[in-house]
Write a structure and sequence with these properties.
The protein has about 200 residues and is an alpha+beta fold. It has seven helices and five strands. Strands 1-2-3-4-5 form a five-stranded mixed sheet, with helices on one face. A hairpin with a 2-residue loop joins β4 and β5. The termini are far apart. About 25% of the residues are buried. About 5% of the residues have low confidence.
């Protein structure tokens, strides 16, 4: 049923999957108005998987997912619930983590089976690998409405009790003591930074 310009094409774990009527235009722009059905299909699937990545983390926190929407130039995961700031930051990472999983899987298949021979699958693989990485980098830029505007706030919630937190606390404390105004770091400070980093890596 068409509603508000969206067509519901199915459900995932009860979540409506909706596609806006202008989505084909976005796919055409994405392929520079060339006839590239492999690019179009990969574009659509990549957006869908990105938004499902958000939805899975929303459900992980027992919040309500209203719909997963595919639009002409992106998508959205509509959800509601009393999420904390930390949960919102984690949820923001869901999309790019799903894209990273797509990249790894596609890279593994190509490494095992070899590059595709048909133009359709070459375009498909190109979107799932090269274009995918560019979109991840773009989406992680640290400002809204991109996911990076919320995702990078996760650094605020790294507990000072953890080894990783202590490492970042040490770096911040050195900066507060005027490290930025000096051209060198003392040997003692260098040893403390190295030890904090080694502890952080060892205990993760």
């Amino acid at each position: 049923m068409l509603r508000d310009g969206y067509l519901t094409i199915g459900r995932y774990r009860g979540i409506p999957l909706r596609v806006h009527v202008m989505t084909p235009l976005g796919a055409l722009v994405f392929s520079a108005f060339r006839f590239e059905p492999g690019t179009w299909l990969a574009y659509f699937l990549l957006i869908l998987l990105h938004e499902i990545g958000h939805a899975l983390l929303v459900m992980r926190y027992r919040l309500g997912v209203l719909s997963v929407d595919i639009q002409a130039f992106g998508g959205s995961c509509r959800w509601a619930g009393p999420a904390t700031a930390q949960q919102r930051s984690v949820i923001a990472w869901g999309g790019v983590l799903a894209q990273a999983a797509v990249w790894l899987l596609t890279f593994g298949v190509v490494a095992f089976a070899g590059p595709p021979r048909s133009w359709f699958w070459r375009d498909f693989v190109y979107v799932f690998t090269t274009t995918n990485l560019w979109l991840i980098a773009l989406n992680l830029l640290p400002f809204a409405p991109l996911d990076g505007g919320e995702a990078w706030k996760i650094t605020r919630f790294i507990g000072s009790s953890s080894s990783v937190g202590r490492f970042f606390d040490r770096i911040r404390s050195l900066g507060r003591r005027g490290l930025r105004t000096r051209s060198t770091v003392s040997a003692d400070e260098a040893r403390r930074i190295a030890k904090a980093f080694e502890d952080a890596v060892r205990r993760r």
